[in-house]
Amino acid sequence: MIKFYTDILSKLESSISELDLQTDYSTQRIEAAILLIVKCLSDLKAYIQKRGFKDVNEEIQFFKHQKPTIVAKLIYYNAIYKIETKKPYGTEPIRKYLNKELKKLKSFFDNNLDFYKYYRSNNSFLDESLFVRGKHDIKLWLDTYYFQSDHSFSTSHDYKVAKIIANDLIQVYIEDQLYNKIQKDKLKASKILKWTGNKVALIELIYALHYQGVLDNGNNDIRVLAQYFESAFGIDLGNFYQTYLELRNRKMNRTKFLDALREILLEKMDAQVEK
């Protein structure tokens, strides 16, 4: 049982990691992750129904720890999908929306505080009532969901454990979203850096970066780069292409600014080494 579970979980996590590298946190990636998890749970259910458990301890281990780990991923990605697809526009509406989602997590915690304490304290005296099939006790924090679930693959509390695990992940995700939003707002509110060199020097730098392909692999039109630098540094470059032609046609010192950058950097490096 342990080997099968370890293998299927490892395969699932590897597949999800590959999706991370391909499409990041897009809704398409989340949809793909959900499909992978549903397939994993289907395979796990078929295995359990065919093999069964060797004893009560193995059954408790499965429904208290193993199955919830995978179901938590499903709950997590489904929650993130809903958050992303329902997210409003605008800084303040988004902030309020995310804080409202955090309050939902807090509400679940408050409504299930006794079970949180039991589970997180690693207690086991109720495990046979909570994590063995067909042994439910209606007095022990039961959700309506349980009565509608497949009792051959569910106990009264394995889903609640998965929910606890997932909510921790969802909270981290939301708080990270809020933090990034605050940081972006601070950046927008910060003082704009001004270009205090001459325009020719900046144009020389822009063309060098463009031809080196270090900004979006050189796929952007030079006009896009020029407009970006104008906005970032609060400067009007005018007819930058004409300036570039003049630079290109110079007989000497065509890269005066870049040469100066190299010289000053080497000079500072040498000075720091000597100290």
UniProtKB/TrEMBL annotation:
Pfam families: RteC
InterPro entries the UniProt entry points to: Tet_reg_excision_RteC (IPR018534)
Protein name per Swiss-Prot or TrEMBL: Tetracycline regulation of excision, RteC
Organism, scientific name: Sphingobacterium zhuxiongii
